[in-house]
């Protein structure tokens, strides 16, 4: 039983060395950087490029290896026995053991060490990492015009996703798997006339110790940015009653399910690509559009509406407080620049309200 299980596990192995042996250790790591470093280390071990660095390349051996046989002059292929025989012959100083490559770990080379130190003092010290950008109000208006002017359900879906993500500070992995079942109707705020003042969503992100109850408020003063109006229109037009909120139109077109239950969803990368296409069409560039764009847009909306860092960081549910401070400073700086330029898009924005809600059912 155990032997059969072992063979089955071996057959499923994804990574092998040049001899076909299964690779373990770093190869089972979750992050690609660790796997990449393991691959580089394997290549170094295979070619004896570990330990003390030695520059033992022989110019004569290299010329001998590049000669080629009579059929492949100066272009020796690896599958020609005659060419390979010449390659392995070596020069008169190294017969049968050609010195064709350096040996040892290149990181231990004195030249590499000196160059790395100089680079750290020069270009690298001046390098500034440019993060993703968020959308300011005027850009959100332009995005709305772009997506809704086509009068398509996919356009309405994309813009509604932007509004929901920005108002609830959703991470990308929280947004695209959002379900109708995460709307807690008994905690929604509903006016006496039956109109919804705020949706209540149950969200549990990577830094949360349990479900968080977030309110998605109606924005009467600025209907172009009102997430409640757009979400209600979207749910009604698509015919969604349960399942995923953002179905893949290619698999499940609007109103294709008579019961309103949808089991597919649009992955985040295609959604992000739609935003990049919009940015290229509207602003001429998609530079700065990335996985943090929605959360940075949330900060901009909150700051433009007078939100303070102490409350915004609660709404954003950051794992690292430094990220909250960095996002806040960027949004505050953008607000001050727009204000100095007499940008009118921030003048009619009502006061920001903290979206976190305590579960009163406990």
From TrEMBL:
SUPFAM superfamilies: DNA breaking-rejoining enzymes. Keywords: DNA recombination. InterPro entries: DNA_brk_join_enz, Integrase-like_cat_sf. GO terms for biological process: DNA integration; DNA recombination. Residues 1-22 are annotated as: Disordered. Residues 1-19 have a biased composition (Basic and acidic residues). GO terms for molecular function: DNA binding. This is Tyr recombinase domain-containing protein.
